[in-house]
Amino acid sequence: MKPVLQILSLAALIASVFAVPAQAGDAKAGDLVITQAWSRATPKGAKIAGGYLTIENKGAAADRLLGGSGEIAGKVEIHEMAMNNGVMTMRPLDKGLAIEPGKVVKLAPGGYHLMLMDLKGPFKQGDKVPFTLEFEKAGKVTLSFDVQGVGAQAPAGGAGGHKAHDHSKM
Asked: Which helix or strand (DSSP H or E) is residue 48 part of?
């Protein structure tokens, strides 16, 4: 074997050994990487559920999460929860959620989240619920929410207690 081919073969072998596999729920849309998409199991008859995920903008331009859709929900809104004068409040973000370049935005319990309304059926622990996110620039991307237990605070294998980033400058 020629020395150049040996070097290339060795480089390919090393790259394959050290490559980090993408998680099953990861998705990419333009410069955005979406990871850790999850939701909680819902009781029978529940009409709402929360959708949580992490969005990283690896590009040089801002983008905006506008909303999403899925066969399981009649309506989807992006919401923000915050403490105001000791009272937890929740409000829809009618203009979407900015994803600034080089930043990571977490949608997690107690902060930003997707509110899935008019559910067509319950979310059961262990299910994978298909869902499409819509971004202003990156367009649409389809992924699945991994359904965790009713009281879950983070995706399976993830660290608990995620806090949303401060986006008060939007």
From this structure: strand 48-57
